[in-house]
Amino acid sequence: MPREFGPSPEEMGIPSEESKDSIFERGNIRINRENVFDPFQFETSALIVEELAPYMDEKVDIGFKEMKASNVGFNSRLNPEFRDEGYRDKIAMNPSYKDQIELPGYLLHELGHSFEGKLRAVADAEGLEILPDGVHDDEKGFDADFHADLVAAYILEPGAIDQNEKLPLLKNTKTAIEKMFNGQDFSRLREDLNGMITEYKVKQERKYNGARGKGDLTEEEIEKIKPAWLKDGYDPTPFYMRVFSQIEEFARKKTSPEAEQDFTNQDEVRRILESGTEEELKRLQEFHNLSLEQIKLFGYYAKLRRETIKKMQSEIDERKKNNPVASEAELKMGAYNESIEPHIRKTVIALRGKGYNTTLSGFSGLDSQKIKIADNAFDGVRLDDEVVRKLQEKGIEVKIEPNTVSLTCSQEINLKQLEEAWRIIEKEIPDLGHPAEASLLPAAKIFRERQSELGRHL
């Protein structure tokens, strides 16, 4: 059927109502049209998938499942315990939801959850500090899904983000979203969705007025079939616009000296250890029942970590400016060597040369360091007893797990000593006889995409 706005379903490749093919698939996203009550639900979803699939790295299944009218849907990504190697995010949308014209916005919100990993990877690659993936604290009455709501707002209400860029973290998050979508502004998608929503509203209002005009329905029955947007007290503000008031609340709690602090949040704990007041340090000490020596030790490593990351960022900026083309080993790793913390850099490079596909390295926790790999290749690795004894004498305890080597420091150790300790450990780890495979981390894929623009390919 021709439309005033947007492509027809046939032009989009959407299965017709008569088609036995119930699956619409683009890239890593697929939709199952079973349980759809109205073509509007499926067609708007397919239009969204058509536009977003080129940017989606995660595998996503979208389906329709009847729930309570007040429940719009969910994304299984919010339950990470169900993840496995072949995991696909599963989004369920409610075809009976009380306000059907909100479904496109809700679907974009749920897809926003599936973009969270890529958004974080883009931010890390660009050196941007962005808003957290989400803050959930029922006791304090604060519940926010910043990334998911902002993805929906970026696509459907971009002007609202521009008007609310008071907080630097919001501006950085917008920049990361823009880069994630390669600068696409989705103006055509907005126009098409608005046209489809307008058409749907006209159709539903005609049905409602026709049923009401027959005169055979009770007042209660008439009210029940009345479209949500015609009911008294209806608020047309899109739900995802809540994000801006939530960001203001987040900023207030983050900066207000009177605000109750979250001493279980690692970022907040590090901030206090790096530059907190005596009162904050005292409260942190009491909350975790720490000794004065532990507070001093953790403070030492928090400051050392900050200085290390600052130096590393300076080296990355210098590398991008003077020598942006990556080596083959860097392409496989998916990052410049300069993006590895300096004191652990030689160890990581050596381990990758030995065949260990590293995924994470450097400072971890409050007094520890770690190197993590993509598989369990460290399984069975043991350090010589004499090596363990010498490291213990320096205040360093080493733990080797199938996919992680970590060390914990019981005293203040400088970067040179940490580098020496890591090199000693690396020499004890056997060579697998081949270099590491290419990293499949989202950040690594983004790095290689940008290198391809410079003519460098793996």
Question: What labels describe this entry?
Answer:
single chain; 458 residues; alpha+beta; five-stranded mixed beta sheet; four-stranded antiparallel beta sheet; 18 helices; elongated
Largest beta-sheet details: 5 strands, mixed
Record field, number of beta strands: 11
Taken from the alpha-carbon principal axes, the silhouette is elongated
Q: Calculate the mean pLDDT score and round it.
A: 87
Region (Disordered): 1-20
In short:
This protein is α+β, with helices and mostly antiparallel strands and 458 residues long. It has 18 helices and eleven strands. It is elongated and about 90 Å long.
Describe the structure in your own words:
Residues 1-20 are annotated as: Disordered. It is a single chain. It is built from 18 helices and 11 strands. The relative contact order is 0.08. Helix 2 (39-52) links the parallel strand 2 and strand 3. It has a 5-stranded mixed β-sheet, with helices on one face. A 4-stranded antiparallel β-sheet has the order 8-9-11-10. Strands 6-7 form a two-stranded antiparallel sheet. The longest helix has 31 residues, at 292-322. Mean pLDDT is 87; it is low at 1-6 and 137-142. The protein has helices spanning 9-12, 39-52, 103-114, 116-126, 146-156, 158-163, 168-180, 187-213, 219-225, 242-255, 266-275, 278-288, 292-322, 328-333, 342-353, 385-393, 415-428, 442-453; strands at residues 23-26, 29-32, 60-64, 73-75, 89-93, 135-137, 142-144, 358-364, 368-373, 396-401, 404-409. It is of the alpha+beta class and 458 residues long. The radius of gyration is 27 Å and the shape is elongated. The chain has a domain at 326-453.
